[in-house]
Amino acid sequence: MIDLTTIADFSRANCLGICAFLVPFNLLATVQTLIFIGLNRPQSQIFLISGFASLYSGLMVLHVFTWFMIGVVMIPTYVLLLLGTTCLGINIWAVLSPQSLRHILEKIVFWVQKIIGRVQNVAFN
């Protein structure tokens, strides 16, 4: 039988190593999901990368909950919880409705290109 107390103690005792692994992998995997959506990759590839990214996000949220269980309520716990839930939400969105996410990404890219064009016009005039 799995002892959740032991797992939670392990999570808290190795917090620095767990966060040093989960934060960059979570961000990279979620960005890769967004890139796959933007490049219109096949749904099977989006499912695969979203699955890994959701795994990292879910583990981060569970890790933060181990701190909440013992009453540690600090800014880093909220930041990590926000990061984990945001990435988890993006990955779920990528699986459930990739077309709407692609539409949003296209609007963001268009908006950024428009801003860069304005900055270049001002810089070279």
UniProtKB/TrEMBL annotation:
The keyword Transmembrane appears for this protein: yes
Q: Which UniProt keywords apply?
A: Membrane, Transmembrane, Transmembrane helix
Write out the transmembrane intervals: 20-39, 46-69, 75-96
Query: What is the source species?
Result: Planktothrix serta PCC 8927
Full protein name: Uncharacterized protein
**Source taxon at top rank:** Bacteria
